[in-house]
Amino acid sequence: MSDVFFADLKTTHEMNLFKKLERLLYKIDLISIIEKDDLVAIKLHFGERGNTSYVQPIYLRKIVDRIKEFGGKPFLTDTNTLYVGSRGDAVSHLKTAIENGFAYSVVNAPLIIADGLRGRSFKMVRIDKKWYKEVDIAEEIYNADALIAVTHFKCHELSGIGGTIKNLGMGCASIQGKLNQHSTVSPYVDQERCTGCGRGQKWCGYKAIVIEDKKERIIPDICVGCGECIHICPTGAIRIRWDASTMSVQEKMAEHTIGALQNKGGKYAFITFITQISPACDCYPSNDIPIVRDVGILASRDPIAIDQASADLVNNQIGNRDSNLTCNYESGEDKFRGVYPHIDWTIQLSYGESLGLGSRGYKLIKI
Ligand code: SF4
User: Fold this and answer.
1) Same domain, 102 and 149
2) Which of 90, 175, 199, 269 is the most exposed place for a label (fewest CB within 10 A)?
3) Which residue CA neighbors atom 4 of ligand 1 most closely?
4) Predicted TM-score of the model (pTM)
5) Average pLDDT over residues 146-155
């Protein structure tokens, strides 16, 4: 059983959310993992342009200031994306991050794109697991002395949940590492549902979607399996073979998480914001109505426990009937299956637990 500390969103003038966040950092004993002059990577998602559900910069400022008080040298970091969008290279990525509010004057720390200008700066980390002997981890995450993952918890179109394992496993991988994880995702177009609107073709950064006879078609030899066209299709015509694809992506993410944490000697911690729980990743240029109300902030030293606790807290809420939820509205019912019925999101947690990443058993300690 691992400790997971939980702050709900109820506040007073004396105990506002910043104070609660500080208490969470105290509870996970952040001071014990930061040594003087440590380069501390704070891994987050800066949000795609047009998306507003990512963790707001003012919270990052609090975490940065606390790490500095302990003598650390923090920087905010993420890696480049596989798909076309506003974060596919370091220049575009930094520009988007600053436009989304992550300016130095706000967050009090530099921004570094961890896998370089075009996502090709990485270190091979030996892990010797089922899918990989070695994984490609973004160089500046590998080079950091300590790693703090700050995660926006939400649904995800490939892994069911987008939590700490997603933030670390996929988010700390270089472009090649991301390609490796997506290699078994092969979307196809359901020709009966396709209206030939061309949105998928326009969105695909690899030009893997063509229009033939007024229908979209995916060319398998060109498609890298990034999965970004799935959510963009307005009629749900772009699909993947759920069982094989989602299982392997989740297991591969868990193995890459090992690679991201391996050389840190236990100098890592995880903070999760269960707010604006959107039905898809922050990689899209919009975020739809949250599936449940905002829940709170969690902190832990166990990446599996914090994801399990986050999912349980979301599932205990009443579902929002105006959202993308199609069923499972009652408290205790699986909200992630209510959005993505075919995805068993627990695979990343059970496989991660079997690898020794952490424990699905946890003690929720409310502060
Ligand atoms: S067709 Fe393939 S490469 Fe293009 S967006 Fe879809 S999954 Fe990504």
Assistant:
1) yes
2) 199
3) 204
4) 0.90
5) 98
